[in-house]
């Protein structure tokens, strides 16, 4: 128990010294850190917008391709049914409903 109290006191003293040193230098370190965090925030915001746009474009392209492929598959299946190559009994029941 006394060890924990002693460690807490040491940490408080060290934190106080660090804060005093930073303030003694006029706060330039704090402003520098703030500027760096703003720059990082701007970069993250820009990159997330760029990635969002790219993912939207990819999604649109995939949806277009999906529609084309589904149309081709339907055409091939209909031709195969007309020629008697395949028979889909389940699909006929679905169409009737």
Explain what this protein looks like in three dimensions.
It contains 3 helices and no strands. With 97 residues, it is mostly helical. The protein has one domain. The protein is elongated, with a radius of gyration of 34 Å.
Give me some keywords for this one:
single chain, 97 residues, mainly alpha, elongated
Residue ranges: pLDDT <50 for 5 or more in a row?
A: none
Count all strands and give the number.
0
Rg for CA atoms: 34 Å
- N-to-C span: 77 Å
Q: How many domain units?
A: 1
The assigned structural class equals mainly alpha
Taking the sheet with the most strands, its summary is: none
| Share of residues in strands | under 5%
Q: What form results from the Cα inertia axes?
A: elongated
Could you report the average pLDDT, rounded to the nearest whole number? 82
